[in-house]
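Usage

Read records sequentially. Each one opens with the input sequence:
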Amino acid sequence: MTLTLASRWRFSYLMKMSFLLVILIVGWLGSLILASNFNLSLNDVWQLLNDQMGNEIHQHIIYSIRMPRAFVAMFAGMGLAIAGLLMQSITRNPLASPSIFGVSAGAAFAFAFASTGLLPWLSGVPILIITMSGALISGVMVFFLAGLHQNRINPIRVVLAGVALNFLFISLTRAAVIFADEHAYGVMYWLTGSVANVGWSDVTLLLPTVFFGFVLSMYLSFQLNLLRLGEAMMQSVGGKLWQVRVLSSIVIVLLIAACVSVSGPIGFVGLMVPHVARAWVGHDIRFLMPMTLLMGGNLVLYADIGSRYINLGQENPVGIVTSLFGALFFLVLTKQQMRSQL
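and closes with the structure output:
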């Protein structure tokens, strides 16, 4: 009977993963042709993929503009979703996410400060290094202020430290935008979160980063499952608490830095996706991680398509859509947490 139930669960899990994969492929194809001033079609995509002669303008738009944008949206969603799941796992706090705990804000501030021109030598530094430095500084501050270096952590302390740093870096970013002068509009647009104006170089940056982050996260999945039992219980059964927190923090900083450097701080992806994935497959990180990966890619991919229809013919940041749904999701989640504590 147990074996039968386990087999049914695995079959159900595979069906859900297959469904998400199909939805991802459909969204990727839709991102290539929808909401365009040109009459793009799937036939143009087919001819391009099969190296056939077709409408050169259409093929150029699809290959040079739409295809990198679709890949960046997909990989950025995957990276932010994994980072959010890792943050919620190591803090054991359902409200943890890159956008709420200040890590994304730290990376965004570093980019905004570099855009001010106050330090001319920063113009020669790769954006990834700049955003990683900001994310690392913010991440280290959260790590110690929240008490993650200690065996036991206080959930309230974690939230307060994250929210405080988030507001600190947001304020510093606004100050940096004032000094940015002629670059202010571009910086503000980027800070909303956008996958427009990306190229293949951005894809080659995100792909290995997300792949590495996913593989290392899967490696840590067993230890993260032990951490769900509590720090004391984890250590009593041989779990490596310090190693898990440090390695997870490194993956979080790397993923956020890469995603922010390419698409800006797209909000609430890391908060929403892990909760929806848990509702589908439960709390086992080994199964939750792949589900989160696909859901994150789907969310940003379809949010980008939806953002194009807000004002057809104009570029609209994808962060508008994710923040709209994310803010409502956050309010509902907070209300549920308050009820559970009464």
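Summary fields computed downstream for this record:
- The radius of gyration is 21 Å.
- The first helix runs from residue 2 to 33.
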